[in-house]
Structures are given as structure tokens and as C-alpha cells.
Amino acid sequence: MKSVKNDSIHQASEDGLDPADWEETRRLAHQMVDDAIDYYRNIKDQPAWEEMPESTKSKFSFDVPRNGSSLEEIYEDFKTDILPYPMKTAHPRFWGWYMGNGSFTGALADFLTSVINSNAGGGNQVAGVLETQVINWMKEIMDYPSHASGILLSGGSMANFVGLAMARHSKAGFDVRKQGLVNGETNMTVYASSEVHSCNQKSIELLGLGSNQLRLIPVQKDFTMNTSRLVQAITEDRKEGFKPICVIASAGTVNTGAIDDLEEIAEICESENMWFHVDGAIGAVAVLSKTGRKLLRGIEKSDSVAMDLHKWLHVPFEAGCTLVKNSKIHHDTFSLVPEYLAKNQRGLASGTNWYSEYGLQLSRRMRALKIWMSIRENGSIKFGDLIERNIHQAKYLASLVNKEHSLELMAPVVLDIVCFRFVHVALSPEQHHDLNREILARLHESGVAVPSYTTLHGIYCLRVAIANYRSTYADFDDLVRQVVAIGNNCVSR
Ligand SMILES: *Cc1c(COP(=O)(O)O)cnc(C)c1O
Prior knowledge:
Elements lengths: L1 H13 L7 H20 L12 H4 L13 H12 L11 E2 L8 H13 L9 H16 L7 E5 L2 H16 L4 H8 L4 E6 L4 H9 L7 E4 L9 H13 L3 E8 L11 H11 L2 E6 L9 H6 L8 E5 L11 E5 L2 H8 L33 H36 L3 E3 L7 E6 L6 H17 L4 E7 L2 E7 L7 H19 L2
Parallel strand pairs: 1-11, 3-4, 3-5, 5-6, 6-7
Antiparallel strand pairs: 2-8, 7-8, 9-10, 10-12, 11-12
Helix pairs in contact: 5-14, 6-14, 7-9, 7-13, 14-16, 15-16
Pyridoxal-5'-phosphate binds next to helix 7.
């Protein structure tokens, strides 16, 4: 009796997380890949959104399972309760907020990344080598010099945070890492247009600069920053004892896709000795397209640029990137190497590409593989063509809107974002607001399409962001038809 008990303890202690039956798991894993292929192949016939029923939501309330279940059973639950109800970014008529489609190759790469499960924080291993090559590609794409540095991050929010942290570090005029803002100065100011993405304000707040010190410069008719107002604000702030350290230019604003005058802001930063950061989460990668390249002139003059690769490059979440002109400032802003992370001359703990010294994270997912595989498979020309097509589709949609007397275009279309609304002479401003909200809700609820919404000059409008390689021109014909039909239907009742 005693020996049996000992045996079972022995056995339990050698039991790990590997499947009990590898062949059974192989079959199931192949099934998952088959199902994933079908998901992508049939996505256009699916509703663009499906609300999760309460009965399904309520299934997600069971306690911690103390004992396991079979993977087969869990996968069945995935298929019935999870798979139908995501934010369906892969859908050809998903145009909400601003996202990419993901890709099947990206999904496979994500799987392989987890199989290897390499920690991309450091070490003499492939993750750093791969990340360096991907960063070099990004530098080449953005016309950044070869001595520049960069890092892969979760997305645009972190990419802007890294840029602004370097601005603070290099322009504070004292050792902000050591002294902090309590014993140092707290009068540093940062400038951006009133259209700047909210994640920049979050960064300013988390960096201790305070959102009062984020100066929101008014925009012009085309929603780009009014640069004479920028210069005026900097001058006034200096007079009042503030210390202007950074301008954040938007290369593609989230509302309308407007691109600030990058050449001019570069000059202003140069003459004012300020850090020039570009939030290029939407627009930066458009340098790959002919139209984008012209619009983005001057982006290469920035001190840092935030890019979002899970947007217009369609890398599956999460993938962002910051490029930095001065690699020493990048390193000095983030590097902290305690004894237990000190590099060795030989072995796994040697090597030079320790990305943990260039950002906040120590343990890091090997994000480079999915980007590396996707760019190799398609080539940068293809991505440029897809971006160009989306820009053209946006202009096409704008032309449809302009042709339709019951629709009104609300902002100029420069990149791939189109803002418009349904209008009718008999309606008050409030009724217009309510009606357009109703149209949006019905588009979502019917599963026809997922645009989003915004408010421009105080007016609510529908907003279609076309970072989507599955959208066809017919999808936009259909959208306009549906919006007009829903609008007319509501007005006549
Ligand atoms: C999406 C976006 C961000 C934030 O990026 P995340 O990847 O969502 O963190 C920042 N700026 C702009 C202009 C964006 O469109």
C-alpha cells in the first residue's frame, strides 16, 4: 500500500503540460488550422458584427476549474461561444476606429512564435537578430539613417510613450531619471494639434508632465495644425517661464486622417531646440505608397516616429514600433542593467541586441517573426499597392457621398478615412444627431458593415476607416445604398 502511494506521488511529479496523446493532439491541431482557413475564406459571407447573446455571455461565469477537461471539448466551446463574437477585424466591411485585418500568415507566425516562446528581452539568440532586421527594414522604409535605433512594441500607444519619454529625458536639462520632476522642474510643455490621439495625453500624464502642460494647438479647415499658432504658443510659454520640449505632429489624425505640415514642424523644432515626435500610428507606413510618400514629406526629419504595424500593415495584434534618430538617447532613456542582467562575454547571456534596454518591458514576446514573415511573403511593393488602393477607395466613397444629395461629406479625404452624415432639410441639428446614430446602430446590428463615428466641429458623423485589403469597391456602393435607405426609412416614419 505504502509503495503504491509513493509511486503515484512519483508519477504526479513527472506529469507536465504536454498532451497525453500527441497523435490525438496532432489531429485536433490540424482541425484547428482547417477551421481557421475556412474562417478566413468565408469571412465575407459572415455578418460584420454579431452581438453575443446573454445566454452565451452567462456561460463565462464558472469558477476556476480545479480539474482539467479535454482539449477537444474546450475547442468545441471556442467554436460555439467565442469564434462568432469577436470584433471582426478580418471582415471586408469592418471600418471601425482604425485597425488592420490581420492575416493568415501572421496568425501562423503568432503560433510559431509561441511554439518557440523565446524571450525577446535579450540574450545571444535569434529574437534580437530578427528584431534588428525588422527595425532596419522600418528605418529603410521611413528613410531613417542606418545609425538610428528602434524597438517593437505593443502598438501606437506604447510607441508614442517611448517617443515622449525620450523627449522628456533629452530636453529636461537635468537628470530626470534620477531627480524626478519633484526636485527638478515641472514646467516642461509639449505641443500637439487639438486632433492629437488621446494616448499622447495619457503618456504626458504618466510621464508626470501633467495634461495642463500639453498645449492643444487649433487646427485649420483641413484639420492640420495651425503652425503659426504653434510658434505663437511656444513664444508665449517661453515668456511665461515654461520650457517647451517637444512637438507631436500627427501623420494621419484619428478623426479624419489629416497630416500635419511635417516639413514646417521639423524646422520649428530645429530652431526652438525641441524634440520632434511624429505620431504615425495611422499614416507612417503610407510612405510605401506613391500618394502617401508625397503627403508625408518631412517625416524622416523627426527625432522619433511611432508606427502601428497592426493597422495598415495588417500584422495581427499586437505590433507597434518606435524609430529613434539618436540611438544613444534611446538607450540612455531606458537602460538599467542590474547584476542579474549583466551581459557575459560568451554563452546565451552574451550578445548585443538586448531590447530590454530600449523600452520598459524586460520579458518581451518575439513580435518580429510575424512582421518578418509577412513582409517577406508579400514584399513591400505589395503593401504599398494595398495602401494606395485603400486611399483610392476612400476617394471613391467620398465621390459617392458627394453625388448623393442626402449625404454630406464632413472632412476632406487625404488618406483612407471618410467622414460623412445623412442630412434632410426637415431635420433639426438634434434630429440629425439622433438619426445618424440610429443609422450607425442599424448598420452594426444588421451585420451589414461596421463603420464608426466621430464628432467634427460639434457635428456627429459616420466615419469609415479603410485599412482593409478585403474591401471591394462594391462594398462602398452597398454602404452608401444602405445608409441612404435607412436614413430615408427613418425620416419617412
Ligand atoms: C490607433 C492610434 C494610436 C494608438 O495605437 P494603439 O495601437 O491602439 O495603441 C495612436 N495614435 C493614432 C493616431 C492612432 O490612430
